[in-house]
Amino acid sequence: MVAHALKQYLDRHAIKYVMIIHSPAYTAQEVAQSVHVPGRELAKTVIVNIEGRLAMAVLPANRKVVLQDLRDVTGTDEVRFATEAEFHGRFTDCETGAMPPFGNLYGMDVFVEPRLTQDQEITFNAGSHTEAIQMAYADFERLVHPKIVSFSN
Predict the structure, then answer these.
(1) Which of 118, 110, 100 is nearest to 28 (CA)?
(2) 3-state helix vs strand vs coil in the chain, percent to 5
(3) In this prediction, what percent of the chain has a pLDDT beyond 90?
(4) Phi, psi at 82, each rounded to 5°
(5) Are strands 53-60 and 131-136 parallel, antiparallel or unpaired?
(6) DSSP assignment, residue 53?
(7) pLDDT digits (tens, 9 = 90+) for 18-61
(8) Over 54-104, what HEC string results?
């Protein structure tokens, strides 16, 4: 089921979006294949810990987070991948690993890889392993106010 907080938020802001139901998929590349979107166009959300605070690193499914790059852009050496135990209770309306890139709904900063800003639309997990949302990237950026920084390879 789509993340309740996300659906309410999008509807409250009158955002146009498409809900895509797909067969169960657990990796970003599997989701991309299931929703017929190239991996470079599907946004995956990776939870990171920056100086003890959780944040989202949002990047194309076919890319990998480079922690050193995040350290450089945040100006701290204390950046690492968050453990599931650290963020499990934060996303009560989401299946683990299917969190949407709306950190503002979960009290987190959002860092977006610039490659995602080049497309008119953004497609991402909607809180479950069987649902995705596609919407205008401009609407996403207006609602989330992500920090656009390079941190992947």
Answers:
(1) 100
(2) 35, 30, 35
(3) 89
(4) -75, 150
(5) unpaired
(6) E
(7) 999 999 999 999 999 999 999 899 999 999 999 999 999 999 99
(8) EEEEEEECCCCECHHHHHHHHCCCCEEECCHHHHHHHCCCCCCCCCCCCHH
Q: How many CB atoms lie within 10 A of CB 43?
A: 27
pLDDT in tens, 23-33: 999 999 999 99
The answer, yes or no, to whether residue 1 has pLDDT greater than 60, is no
Is this prediction's pTM over 0.85?
A: yes
| Angle of CA points 94, 97, 73, to nearest 5° | 110
Residues in the chain: 153
Is residue 3 over pLDDT 80? Answer: no
Q: Which amino acid is at 23?
A: S
Residue 17 CB coordination number (10 Å)? 19
Residue at 31: amino acid letter: V
Query: To which H or E segment does residue 47 belong?
Result: strand 42-50
Amino acid at site 120: Q
